[in-house]
Amino acid sequence: MGEKQIDAYVKKWLKEARQRIIRSFDDILYIQTKSDKSDLVTNIDKEIEQFFIRNIRTVFPGHHIIGEEGFGDDLKRLDGTVWLIDPIDGTMNFVHQQRNFMISIGVYEDGVGKYGYIYDVIHDELYYAIKGKGAYFNDRAIAKLREDVAVAEALISINASWLTRNYCMDASRLIQLVKDVRGTRSYGSAALEFAYVATGRLDAYLTMRLSPWDFAAGKIIVEELGGIVTTLKGEPLKLLEKNAVLVSKPGLHKQLLTYLR
Ligand code: 2AM
Ligand code: CA
């Protein structure tokens, strides 16, 4: 399937999804919790996932789909073309703020990331990359991530909950990092935080537990720009499992790993 074709369809579907979401603000929103009180899903997450899956199955019947809300396929392998879809990344932002939520779509061929799209629905801003063809913010090319950054000058993104006692990480290590950096931020959407590292607005982002659909698009975009995406141990991410994730400018990644190991 031609490169231009996937790209053109995704962009068209994203705009249509935006119209659906904005129209939905006039209707009653049905909110449920999943694994815990912070893990939310709404009828709109489900509707938007189904919207994409319907379209992908019609136009690209041979492709496979992994969707957060479970309307895709139950895949054990990454052979062929696989779409990883998060219809609303940052559902808590969607519910509480009606902004700062993304549609995130990554397309992988035999496990290799080829197309990544992070769409900031309310701001109508699209971050995307096609492997080997550059990364873009709307239609402007994003500059490569080159410069070295010292920890003391770094602005990093981390969710405060990881600084409390948790099962994933010795919080004292993170507290030292938070003391040493210039500043911290938290945006509540992993995809947006990837997009912010891609565009240099953040120097790094780290988090303990992301699912494949949370990082599938962001990984493609950040790596296209020379940024580094690994686990907190510096290993490659596994695309069919949850991962602890470190996203960073290349000149900062090694220094951050020393805090995390
Ligand atoms: P989601 O909104 O699609 O669930 C919140 O800090 C970020 O982490 C969001 O991108 C959120 O994605 C993601 N996330 C992944 N797993 C989560 C979980 N179990 N609970 C809350 N947020 C989670
Ligand atoms: Ca989601």
From TrEMBL:
InterPro entries: Inositol_monoP_metal-BS, Inositol_monophosphatase-like, Inositol_monophosphatase_CS. The keyword DNA repair does not apply. GO terms for molecular function: inositol monophosphate phosphatase activity. Its EC number is 3.1.3.25. It catalyses: a myo-inositol phosphate + H2O = myo-inositol + phosphate. It comes from Bacillus chungangensis. Keywords: Hydrolase, Magnesium, Metal-binding. This is inositol-phosphate phosphatase.
